[in-house]
Design a protein that fits this description.
The complex is a heterodimer of chains A (528) and B (353). With 528 residues, chain A is of the alpha+beta class. Chain A has helices spanning 17-24, 28-45, 47-50, 139-142, 235-242, 279-282, 315-351, 353-368, 371-382, 386-412, 416-423, 428-464, 475-484, 487-490, 494-521, 523-526; strands spanning 80-83, 95-99, 105-110, 120-127, 154-162, 171-184, 198-205, 211-216, 227-231, 258-267, 285-299, 302-303. Chain B is flat and about 90 Å long. Classes of the chains: A alpha+beta (528), B mainly alpha (353).
Chain lengths: 528, 353
């Protein structure tokens, strides 16, 4: 700004933002503080895009206290806990095929579209009475050994995943969601037990081509409602599927690491003859299995970017979402406290006398009441919600500000500009807020940023004691969960280190900014 | 107005402040009753027990705690009066939970808290003054900038988390590591103020007192370091800024002009003056000692007053918290008063008025 245009406002050098910035950016700590703060604000705003898992501390998605995946670098046999079928909701077309020569079988993939909000795969078998199918009749001898269905004619879809680890998963949590539509003679009310004639199968085919039947649906459970059916996997099944991929002395039994998962629809042996009847010759009807979800969740020792908490929730999501609560409480509590403190300080300093006496005695009173215990008592009495925590922190936060403002106002109020404002008939309120306040503002900025640090640390402490909303992801609560849930015994240092590091970094960024503002704006420090 | 008059005025003001605290306490801890109509007795006994109690016994229970069932406004006045009287006669009541006098429970935990807070404050203050002086001799140097950055870092540090990290490293990981390497667990205790087995052995051993002292120190070390480091940043910054301020005064220039060497200027002229505000801060610190440190005590399961407040609060044991609040506030008021007087005694330039 050029000298000729400088009005009275510009004589307050801090009013010009560019001059302020010119001064501010000389301080490396201040720049660093703004940088870190920017990161945290971005994290709070874009939390849903950064962390995809559910951040609620009570949602279990994996076993508890799993290590972050980057620690598996040091562990040759470490298995990462994850959903291994990437296309959980079958949004992309899988391989669909039919076995045998019959043309009664068909499969179709329907992606999400304007008409349906869900993608799915339909496996359909429609039978016309009298059409023969390729019956295998292996049933008598090899019932439990043979994983394939009783007929060579069937329809399937197939997805696959790679298993890059040299170890079996600890457990596999598999499930399939489907609904069944029956028509013709297969529909309810047709022949007796007509729904025993077909089955839905799930096979896992290991890289060597060995088939393992993991699921065969139980009869009479067909429903047009979609149900999620869990598929249990025994230890033996897991080792026979994954065992071939363990590398011993640089070689492994299986040629590749590609595991295929095949879901098929086939008739059962009963279709050949049942209760004195010959269903294949007499039945006409159709069945459609609509598969909407296929899940294979393998758990090992590692999960996600930051591991899991004591409740088996994703720690990374909580770390990201935790920035929201810290920033909100820090900024709002300090905002309220500063507002109250400024008003009280202005009024006390400006009017003096009895008003000053009363207000300052209240401040003295609040200063001798133990701070954290009072916050705890109020938090317990008012209830654990974010608004209450903000209020509780703000109740105790304004005293310092009001003292600071009051001392500044005492120095300002006898200056000539106040007197001249009064001489031209300005009201007290006008003088306080329009004339005195701008002159005491610079010293307030550092006070505000340092107040935010106090509020963030108070929130962390209160949530560490479990006095905040248990559903709300917060760093303090993560620490409380870790120490209460046995992270020390389990040596799960990552659930202790990172939440505290987040608190420290966030409050550190405010501290750096506040310190720098103090250096730049506080005239007492500036003169040196 | 002379010193005498000032002391009298401050004393009256102090008494008023204490009365205010006492009244505030009464209303604060009856807030659940005002807000939700919750009754401490009903929290304490189950409905079944209440049904089986005779009316006399029930009334006796209420009377024991200075309560009235279903109070109206006159009962409230009566309860308030009883409360005021008992507070000023030093009768803090009995715990809802253990039925023991509150003051006994507090006195049991007081030494632990004073030990922890006292030792950690000493660490923080001595370290703060020492490094503060070292750095203030040459403000703006690399050493100074580094030390200030560290102090700011500590200011931003959640102290209880720092304690958790220490506990994890030296209470859990270090013993596990030494056990795997040498077959013995060497490290710091994981919780508590004293080990039970040490206490048992010490009772019959002629060197029992030494063993107990050693074990308590062993338990004390980590929380003391935690709180010591946590408090250090503030003292350091205060000392440094004060001393840098003082070093710009005219009398320092005079001292230098007289030809004194820089060390003498710093310690004889600078430090003495910079210590004045420091003394009041230290006096205040000691006033707040019995506050305890709820968070750090919780992390280390230290049996002190800070954790006692919290555990009593969770159990809705109001007489306990009420009494601790009282004691803390009164100590704080007294410490303020002493700090003010001390400042006047140490600095003859102060005029009361």
């Amino acid at each position: 700004m050029s000298k000729s245009q400088a009005g009275w406002r510009d004589s307050n050098w801090y009013v010009g933002f560019s001059r302020f910035w010119h001064e501010y950016r000389k301080h490396r700590l201040g720049i660093l503080g703004i940088g870190i703060l920017g990161l945290f604000v971005g994290m709070a705003i874009f939390a849903p895009f950064i962390a995809t898992e559910d951040p609620t501390p009570t949602t279990t998605i994996a076993p508890k206290f799993l290590a972050p995946i980057w620690l598996s670098v040091f562990d040759q046999s470490g298995v990462v806990t994850d959903d291994y079928l990437p296309d959980l909701y079958l949004e992309n077309a899988p391989i669909i095929g039919t076995n045998g020569t019959s043309d009664e079988f068909s499969g179709i993939h329907v992606p999400t579209s304007d008409l349906s909000n869900q993608s799915y795969v339909n496996l359909t078998w429609s039978h016309t009475a009298g059409t023969p199918l390729d019956f295998r009749d292996h049933h008598t001898e090899l019932q439990s050994e043979d994983p394939l269905p009783d007929y060579n004619d069937w329809v399937y879809f197939e997805t696959n995943f790679t298993w890059p680890f040299n170890s079996n998963p600890n457990a596999v949590n598999m499930s399939i969601s489907y609904s069944t539509t029956l028509s013709g003679d297969f529909a309810p009310g047709g022949f007796p037990n007509n729904n025993l004639m077909f089955r839905l199968y799930v096979w896992i085919i290991d890289p060597s081509g060995n088939w393992m039947q993991v699921f065969e649906d139980r009869e009479s459970t067909y429903s047009e409602l979609t149900r999620e059916i869990p598929i249990s996997m025994t230890y033996q099944k897991l080792s026979s599927i994954f065992g071939g991929m363990i590398e011993v002395n640089g070689t492994q039994e299986d040629p590749t690491d590609l595991v295929r998962v095949r879901v098929g629809l086939a008739p059962t042996f009963r279709f050949e003859s049942y209760g004195g009847d010959i269903p294949w010759a007499n039945y006409t009807g159709g069945v459609t299995f609509t598969v909407t979800k296929l899940k294979l969740f393998a758990s090992g020792d590692y999960f996600g970017l930051m591991g899991t908490t004591n409740q088996g929730a994703d720690a990374f999501a909580q770390l990201i979402y935790g920035s929201r609560i810290s920033l909100i409480i820090g900024v709002l509590a300090t905002g309220i406290a500063t507002f109250v403190g400024v008003v009280v300080g202005l009024v006390a300093g400006y009017f003096g006398g009895k008003t000053d006496e009363v207000l300052m005695r209240i401040v003295d009173f609040l200063l001798v009441i133990p701070g954290l215990p009072l916050m705890m008592v109020l938090a317990v009495f008012l209830g654990a919600s974010t608004e209450n925590i903000i209020i509780v922190i703000a109740i105790l936060g304004w005293t310092g500000t009001s003292r600071l403002i009051r001392s500044q106002v005492l120095a300002e109020k006898n200056k000539a500009y106040v007197e001249s404002a009064r001489a031209i008939g300005a009201s007290d309120t006008y003088i306080m807020f329009k004339h005195i306040l701008p002159n005491v503002t610079p010293i307030l900025f550092a006070n505000i940023t340092l107040g935010v640090v106090g509020a963030i640390l108070s929130e962390a402490g209160l949530s560490f004691l479990g006095l905040t909303d248990p559903e709300e992801p917060s760093w303090g609560r993560m620490l409380a969960d870790a120490s209460g849930g046995g992270a020390f015994i389990r040596g799960a240092w990552w659930v202790v280190l990172f939440p505290g590091l987040m608190i420290t970094l966030l409050s550190l960024s405010f501290t750096f900014v506040g310190h720098t503002l103090d250096q730049v704006l506080n005239p007492r420090l500036r003169e040196r | 107005m002379g010193l005498r008059e000032y002391i009298i005025r401050r004393s009256i003001y102090m008494v008023l402040l204490i009365i205010a605290v006492v009244c505030f306490n009464f209303f604060l801890f009856r807030l659940p009753t005002f807000l939700f109509g919750a009754n401490p007795i009903s929290l304490m006994i189950s409905d079944e027990l209440r049904r089986n109690l005779t009316q006399d016994l029930l009334e006796q229970m209420y009377a024991n705690f200075g309560l009235v069932p279903d109070p109206d406004i006159f009962d409230w006045i009566y309860m308030f009066w009883r409360y005021i009287v008992s507070m000023f006669t030093g009768n803090f009541g009995v715990s809802f939970l253990t039925q023991r006098p509150v003051i006994t429970a507090i006195v049991e935990r007081l030494p632990n808290t004073l030990l922890l807070m006292g030792s950690s404050s000493m660490v923080a203050i001595l370290l703060g003054i020492w490094t503060g002086v070292k750095v203030a001799a040459d403000p703006g140097s690399k050493k100074d900038v580094g030390a200030v950055t560290v102090a700011l870092f500590i200011y931003a540090l959640p102290v209880f988390w720092f304690g958790m990290m220490l506990l994890l490293a030296f209470g859990f990981m270090l013993p596990a590591w030494t056990e795997s390497v040498w077959g013995v667990r060497i490290g710091f205790p994981q919780y508590g103020t004293i080990s039970y087995d040490v206490w048992e052995i010490a009772r019959t051993s002629p060197y029992g007192a030494l063993m107990v002292a050693g074990d308590v120190l062993h338990h004390l070390f980590l929380p003391m370091i935690t709180l010591g480091i946590g408090g250090y940043g503030g003292y350091f910054l205060y000392m440094r800024n004060n001393l840098i301020d003082v070093m710009t005064e005219d009398y320092i220039l005079t001292a230098r002009a007289k030809g004194l060497d820089e060390n003498q200027v710093l310690y004889k002229h600078g430090l003495k003056n910079a210590m004045l505000p420091m003394v009041t801060i230290i006096a205040m610190t000691f006033g707040f000692l019995i506050n305890g440190a709820t968070l750090t005590e919780t992390v280390f399961s230290w049996r002190g007053l800070g954790r006692f407040i919290f555990s009593s609060l969770l159990l809705m044991d109001f007489p306990v918290i009420q009494a601790i609040f009282m004691i803390i506030a009164i100590t704080a008021v007294l410490a303020n008063f002493v700090a003010d007087l001390l400042y006047g005694v140490l600095d003859p330039r102060i005029k009361y008025g």
